[in-house]
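One chain shown below:
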Amino acid sequence: MNHLKQGTRLILIVPFMAIRATATGAEDKPIKALLVTGGCCHDYEHQKDIIKKGVEARANVQIDIVYVNDGSTAPKLPIYGHPDYANGYDVVIHDECSADIKDPEVIRGVLMPHRNGIPGVNLHCAMHCYRFGDFGKPVPAGSPNSHWYEYLGLHSSGHGAQKPIATKFLDKENWITKDMADWTTIDEELYNNIEVADDTTR
């Protein structure tokens, strides 16, 4: 399983480089990615096309899209009830906002491809999906409402107001951050992290 860390929004292309190293097939074959998107609070209708166009222009990636025009916190994504939804893909990009999808069986199905070894990239609100119970407090490992956090490697409860965020790279030798310089964002949302898994690289 591939844990996705803080800052995934800023390094969308980078995980595909890692996937390239493990993908089967020839070097010139594109990485097959599935973008799952829809739900509350964001302009997913236009965002899905921006992500597809932007990634495909910068990396050898072919993105297919699963999108539902449902602005609720419980969007009826067509992947629900189909745990084999990612068969044939090298990576799933989660860009949905499904904070009120609480059915453990549905959540188990969403996680199934990742438990079977398909990596995931999680963008923004997808950090806060598939949660129930008192998600503002630490959740014991292995409990019914811990599975999404365990997949992420991070339990995040939400984010604060939009403010500039100073970004400092602690491990400048890591292949993901090598040659990156510290910088300050425009107005952005700092995530409130309840717990970070011990095996998550920060």
